[in-house]
Amino acid sequence: MTTAEDxxxxxxxxxVDPSQSSTPAMTxxxxxxxxxxxxxxxxxTSIHTKPAPAVTAELPLTGQIRTPFAHPLPDCKPIxxxxxxxxxxxxxxTLLTTVRAWTTVPSTTTPKTAQPEPIxxxxxxxxxxxCLLRYLRAVSWASxxxxxxxxxxxxxxxxxxxxxxxxxxxxxxxxxSETGKQYILGYDIVGRPCLYMQPGRQNTAKSHRQIEQLVxxxxxxxxxxxxxxxxxxxxxxxxxxxxGGSPSVAQGRQALGILQGHYPERLGRALISNLPWxxxxxxxxxxxxxxxxxxxxxxxxxxxxxxxxxxxxxxxxGGDAQFKYEHEVYWPELCRMLKERREAMWERWVSAGKLVxxxxxxxxxxxxxxxxxxxxxxxxxxxVNGAMKELKV
Length: 393
Prior knowledge:
By secondary structure, the protein is α/β, with parallel strands linked by helices. Helix content is 38%, strand content 11%. It is built from twelve helices and eleven strands. The strands form four sheets. Strands 7-8-9-10-11 form a five-stranded mixed sheet. α1 packs across α3 (129-138) and α1 (86-100) crosses α4.
C-alpha cells in the first residue's frame, strides 16, 4: 500500500492497494474487467473542488452476488481535503487537549437527570483525529468549546440510545433486515461505502426498532470504510413503495436529527430515485428540518452510474452488479466482516497506546503511523537537534 501526503497536521492518507480489492461471494462465472472512458462530468463539485477520479469500470457480472464487496475499485480514491489553516490547527489542538482530559461523560442528553459516568475505552477510541475535525467542521470552526459540547452531547446520546449494544448484538435488528430493505453494497466513485434503502421492501410496522436498524447500518457503513475515507453514500429507491410502508414525517425528522446531530460530516451524497407523488410531499414536509449542507448533497432521479461504478451498482437501480439479497447468506457474512474489522481496529488502538486523537487511517490498517509514533519521531528530532546544538557550542 502506498500513501499520498495530506498536509493537514502532517498526517498522510493512504491509497488503496489494488491487490486488496476483493469480490463478494458469487454464483456462476467470475467477472472479467475492461477499462472504459470515465464520466466527463464531476457530480461532486458542489462539495469538493477536485474533479472526481477516473473510474475503472468492469463488464457486467455474470454470476450472482449475495454478499458485500470488501473494498472499492482501485481507482476510486477518497477526495483529499485541503490543509488546515493556522487558526484551524490551533482550534484542533485546543479541542484535542480538552477531550484528552475528559474522565467522565454525562449519562444522558437531558441536563436535569444527567449524571457523570466514567468514560470508557471504546468511547476514547471513538474520539479520533478525524472525529474531532468532523465536529469542528460541523460548528463551522466557531470554537473548540462549541465542538466539545457537541461531542459530549453525541457521547451521551450514544449511551442513551445504546449504540454499542445494538452494534454488538445484531440480532436486535435482524428481523428488520430480513427482506433487504437496507443493505450495504459497493462503493461510489470516490470510495464511499453505499447504503441502499428500499422502503418498498418494508416488512415491519413502524417502531423504534426501525430507527435502531438505521443506526446499526450507519455504524456498519463506518466500519466498512477503507483507510482514508470518512464519508458515506446513501441510495434511496422508492420503487414499489406504498404510502403505508414509507417512513412517517415523525420518523423522517428523527432520522434527520440523528444523521445531522450525531453523524456530522459523514454524508457525502444521497441519491434518491423512483419518487412517487406522496414521497415528494413527504420531502416537502421535512425540508424545513434539513440543513442546507445536507440538502446540497441530495440528488433526485439522476443516472446513478455517474456516481457509483456500474460493476458495484445494484442492477435493480441501473447497475451491472447482479445482486440478490438473501438474508440467510448476506446477513451472517456482513456481521462476520464487521466483527473482524472492529476487532482489528481495537487491537491496533490498544497496541499503539490507547490514544485519544488516533488516526482513523492507522486504525483501519492503512500504511500510516499511529499518532503516538509521530510524536516519538518529533521528540527524537528535538533531542537530536538539541544535542547537535550543544556540541556546536
